Automatic annotation (TrEMBL):
<keyword id="KW-0067">ATP-binding</keyword>
<feature type="transmembrane region" description="Helical">
    <location>
        <begin position="369"/>
        <end position="390"/>
    </location>
</feature>
<dbReference type="InterPro" id="IPR036890">
    <property type="entry name" value="HATPase_C_sf"/>
</dbReference>
<dbReference type="GO" id="GO:0016301">
    <property type="term" value="F:kinase activity"/>
</dbReference>
<dbReference type="Pfam" id="PF07695">
    <property type="entry name" value="7TMR-DISM_7TM"/>
</dbReference>
<dbReference type="InterPro" id="IPR005467">
    <property type="entry name" value="His_kinase_dom"/>
</dbReference>
<keyword id="KW-0812">Transmembrane</keyword>
<feature type="transmembrane region" description="Helical">
    <location>
        <begin position="410"/>
        <end position="429"/>
    </location>
</feature>
<feature type="transmembrane region" description="Helical">
    <location>
        <begin position="345"/>
        <end position="362"/>
    </location>
</feature>
<feature type="transmembrane region" description="Helical">
    <location>
        <begin position="278"/>
        <end position="294"/>
    </location>
</feature>
<dbReference type="InterPro" id="IPR011623">
    <property type="entry name" value="7TMR_DISM_rcpt_extracell_dom1"/>
</dbReference>
<feature type="transmembrane region" description="Helical">
    <location>
        <begin position="244"/>
        <end position="263"/>
    </location>
</feature>
<dbReference type="Pfam" id="PF02518">
    <property type="entry name" value="HATPase_c"/>
</dbReference>
<keyword id="KW-0418">Kinase</keyword>
<keyword id="KW-0547">Nucleotide-binding</keyword>
<dbReference type="InterPro" id="IPR050482">
    <property type="entry name" value="Sensor_HK_TwoCompSys"/>
</dbReference>
<dbReference type="InterPro" id="IPR011712">
    <property type="entry name" value="Sig_transdc_His_kin_sub3_dim/P"/>
</dbReference>
C-alpha cells in the first residue's frame, strides 16, 4: 500500500465531459448494449470491435470493453461468457478504483479483428497491479461453442503489471474474455490497453522514463539516508549511545521503503505485490515506532519529560497492537476494505502522535525539543499535502501531468529531507550543550578535587600546627624550666663564692643564658599563634632593643604606620629573624658604631627591613673574613624567595626583602 500516484496509467483517449451529456449521448447505445449483454452474442456493434491492424503503438480500449465482477472463486471458467457484462464509461484511475472490486474476481470482454493479410501479435494489459490474469477466446458467431482458454504460457512481462500476448490470424475476428484479480492496494487502476508486441519494450521504457526525475530524487534521498546509517553507527561505536542504533534502524527502514518503491515500481512479481499490499505499510509503521523509541532516548524523556515519555510509550503500544491486527486480517482473510480502513486509521494515529509531540514541545520551549518538533511538523505537513494529492488528484503543475511536483511521493520524500535537516541541527545543538556540560562537570570535579586537596593540606597544616604548639609547650615547660634552673644555680654558686672567679662557672651561666634565648626563639617560631606579620615585626623590635639595652650603641627602630594583616609561616619568620639577629650581632662586634637604625616598611606583597649604622663600614678584607655569616644571611633569605643586599661606603646598610 503506497503513497505514490500513477498518472502514467491515465488513457490518452479519455476526454472528460459533463456526465449528463455523456448519458444523453449514449442512452440508445446502453439500451442496445443491455440487450446484447443478456447472452445476445450474435452481433457486435462495429464501434465495439477493435481493429488490431490500425494499432501503431498502443491503444486504450476502455470504451470498447465490457466489464463485470463476481465474488471470488464463485464463477467457473466455463460460465464466464454468461456473466452480465456492461460497459464502464471511461477507466478507473489509481485511488479511484472502488474497494469492493479489489475483493472480487473481475472480468473483461472485448472484440478484436485483423483485416490485414498477415498475422498480428498484440499484448493485452487490463490495468496496473493485476494478477492471476487468464485469457479466453471465442468466435463472434458462436461464443458458447467456441469458448476456450488460451495457454498460460502466452507472455508475462515483469515490468508492466502483467501482460498477455494475443495472436490474430489474417482476417480473423474474435471475442476475448479476461479473468483477473487486483492486488490489495489503493494504487490499482482499470485501464484496458493493447500494445503492439514489437513495441512492448519501448512502451515499458516510456513508462519508466515518465518517472525519471522522481526516481533520481528518490535515489538521492535514499543515498542521504544511507549516509546517515553509517554516521549513526559510527557515533554509536565511538560514544556507545544506544539511541543512535535506533536512529540507524529508523533510517534503514525509511531508506528501504523509498528505494524499493522506486526500484520495484509497477513490477508484476510476487514480491512487489506483497510489498504494495503489506510490506511497505509495515515498514512505515516500524519506522515510526523505532523513531519514537529513538526520540525518547535522545531527549532522555523518561527522566526529563516523564509525561511525554508515557504518551509516546502509549502510542507505540497502540501502533504495535494495530500492526498485529492488520497482519492477522491480511494473512488470514481476503478483505481489502477493512485493511484500507485500518491503514488510514493507523496513519491518523501517526498524525495525532506528531501533533501531540509538536504541541508538547512548543509548551516546554526547550531548544532541542523545538528542533525535533520542527522536523516532525515539516514531515507531517508535507505528508498531508501528499495525501491530498492522492485523494483529490490535485496537480500543482497543470501544464505537465507527469511533473515531479504533481507526485505525492515527492512531497513525502521532501518532508523526510527537512526532518533530517532539523534533526542534524538538533544533534549539533545537543553535542554543543553536552560539550559545555562536560566542561562544566570537568571544572566542577577539578574544583572539588582542589577543595579536597586543600582540605587535606589544611588538615595536615592543622596537625603540624598542633604538633608545633605541643612541642613548643613541652620545650617551654620542660626544657625551659630546666635551663632556667641551671642559670639560677650558676648565679647562686657565683654569689656563694664571694668574689672568687671560676671561669667554668661563668661559662655555664653564659651558656645557659644563650641557650635560654635560643630556646625562646625556637618556641616563638613554632607557636602557630605567632604566624602573623605583626608578631614578626614586634619580636624583631623587642629583640633589637633588648640586645642593645646594656651596650653603648643607641638602637632606634622605625615601624610602618600600618602593618598589613598577613600570615607569615613559622619557617619564614625563623629565617627572617635569624638573619636580622646575625646582622645585629655582626654590628655589635665589628661596626664600631654608636648608632644603629632599623627601618621596617611593608606593602601588599613585600616586607623590607634596613639595618643602618654609623660605623666603619665593611671593606673587602672583612667581607672575606666574615663572609660565612653574610652568606648564611643570603642563603636564609633566598630559601624563602627573598633577597639580601649590602651597601657599604663610610657606613654599612643591610637590606632584607621577603615576600608576604
Amino acid at each position: 500500500m503506497s503513497t505514490n500516484s500513477h498518472p502514467r496509467f491515465v488513457s490518452a483517449n479519455i476526454i472528460r465531459r459533463h456526465p449528463f451529456r455523456k448519458a444523453f449521448k449514449h442512452t440508445f447505445f446502453y439500451i442496445l448494449l443491455f440487450c446484447f449483454a443478456n447472452n445476445s452474442y450474435s452481433q457486435w456493434p462495429d464501434s465495439m470491435v477493435v481493429e488490431a491492424s490500425d494499432i501503431r503503438f498502443q491503444k486504450a480500449i476502455g470504451k470498447q470493453s465490457l466489464f463485470t465482477s463476481a465474488p471470488k472463486h464463485k464463477v467457473p471458467d466455463a460460465e464466464i461468457y454468461k456473466l452480465p457484462f456492461k460497459q464502464v464509461p471511461g477507466s478507473y484511475l489509481p485511488h479511484v478504483l472502488p474497494g469492493k472490486l479489489v475483493e472480487r474476481d473481475c472480468f473483461l470482454q472485448f472484440a478484436l479483428k485483423n483485416s490485414a493479410d498477415t498475422a498480428i501479435s498484440v499484448c493485452f494489459i487490463p490495468g496496473s497491479y493485476c494478477r492471476s490474469i487468464i485469457l479466453f477466446k471465442a468466435q463472434l458467431h458462436d461464443i458458447p461453442g467456441t469458448f476456450t482458454r488460451l495457454p498460460d504460457s502466452s507472455i508475462t512481462d515483469d515490468r508492466n503489471g502483467g501482460v498477455k500476448r494475443i495472436r490474430l490470424q489474417p482476417h480473423e475476428e474474435a471475442v476475448f474474455f479476461s479473468r483477473f484479480n487486483f492486488v490489495r492496494t489503493n494504487v490499482n487502476s482499470l485501464i484496458p490497453r493493447l500494445i503492439m508486441y514489437d513495441y512492448l519494450t519501448q512502451w515499458s521504457m516510456i513508462q519508466r522514463e515518465r518517472d525519471s526525475m522522481l526516481d533520481v530524487f528518490t535515489y538521492t534521498v535514499s543515498g542521504v539516508l544511507l549516509f546517515m546509517i553509517f554516521y549513526s553507527l559510527a557515533v554509536y561505536i565511538q560514544s556507545r549511545n544506544k539511541e543512535f542504533v535506533f536512529y540507524a534502524l529508523y533510517t534503514f527502514l525509511t531508506c528501504s521503503l523509498l528505494f524499493l518503491k522506486s526500484y520495484l515500481d509497477t513490477s508484476a512479481n510476487g514480491f512487489n505485490y506483497f510489498y504494495e499490499e503489506y510490506l511497505d505499510f509495515m515498514i512505515m509503521t516500524a519506522s515510526v515506532v523505532v523513531y519514537q523509541i529513538f526520540m525518547r532516548k535522545f531527549i532522555n524523556s523518561q527522566d526529563v519529560y516523564p509525561v511525554l515519555d508515557k504518551i509516546l510509550r502509549s502510542f507505540n503500544i497502540l501502533l504495535i497492537g494495530a500492526s498485529i491486527v492488520f497482519s492477522v486480517v491480511y494473512f488470514f482473510t481476503d478483505l481489502y476494505i477493512m485493511l484500507n480502513i485500518m491503514e488510514n486509521a493507523i496513519k491518523q494515529l501517526f498524525f495525532v502522535t506528531g501533533v501531540v509531540f509538536i504541541v508538547y514541545s512548543i509548551k516546554k520551549k526547550n531548544p532541542l525539543l523545538n528542533y525535533l518538533a520542527a522536523g516532525n511538523f515539516s514531515l507531517i505537513a508535507l505528508s498531508v499535502v501528499s495525501y491530498i494529492i492522492i485523494i483529490t488528484g490535485w496537480k500543482l503543475v497543470k501544464t505537465d501531468a507527469t511533473s515531479i511536483f504533481n507526485r505525492a511521493l515527492f512531497y513525502y520524500e521532501f518532508g523526510l529531507v527537512l526532518e533530517l535537516g532539523f534533526f542534524l541541527s538538533g544533534l549539533a545543538f545537543k553535542n554543543r550543550r553536552d560539550i559545555i556540560e562536560r566542561v562544566k562537570e570537568r571544572e566542577r570535579l577539578k574544583l572539588e578535587n582542589e577543595r579536597k586537596e586543600f582540605d587535606k593540606q589544611m588538615a595536615v597544616m592543622a596537625a603540624k600546627q598542633e604538633e608545633r604548639n605541643r612541642i613548643s609547650a613541652d620545650m617551654h615547660d620542660e626544657l625551659g624550666s630546666g635551663v632556667t634552673a641551671i642559670r639560677l644555680m650558676s648565679e647562686i654558686m657565683k654569689s656563694r663564692l664571694k668574689g672568687d672567679v671560676v671561669p667554668e662557672l661563668e661559662k655555664i651561666s653564659n651558656s645557659a643564658n644563650e641557650l635560654l634565648g635560643k630556646m625562646n626563639t625556637i618556641i616563638w617560631t613554632m607557636k602557630s599563634s605567632n604566624d602573623t606579620l605583626e608578631s614578626l615585626i614586634a619580636y624583631i623590635r623587642a629583640h633589637a632593643i633588648e640586645y642593645f639595652d646594656s651596650t653603648p650603641i643607641e638602637c632606634r627602630v622605625q615601624l610602618p604606620a600600618l602593618i598589613p594583616q598577613a600570615e607569615v609561616s613559622g619557617e619564614k619568620r625563623r629565617n627572617i629573624f635569624l638573619s636580622i639577629k646575625e646582622a645585629l650581632n655582626n654590628a655589635m662586634k665589628h661596626s664600631q658604631a654608636s648608632q644603629i637604625q632599623i627601618i621596617i616598611s611593608t606593602n601588599d606583597k613585600w616586607l623590607m627591613i634596613k639595618i643602618c649604622d654609623n660605623g666603619v663600614g665593611i671593606d673587602a678584607d672583612k667581607l672575606r673574613r666574615f663572609g660565612n655569616g653574610l652568606s648564611n644571611m643570603r642563603r636564609r633569605m633566598e630559601s624563602i624567595e627573598g633577597a639580601f643586599k649590602i651597601e657599604s661606603d663610610n657606613n654599612c646598610i643591610l637590606t632584607f626583602e621577603a615576600p608576604i
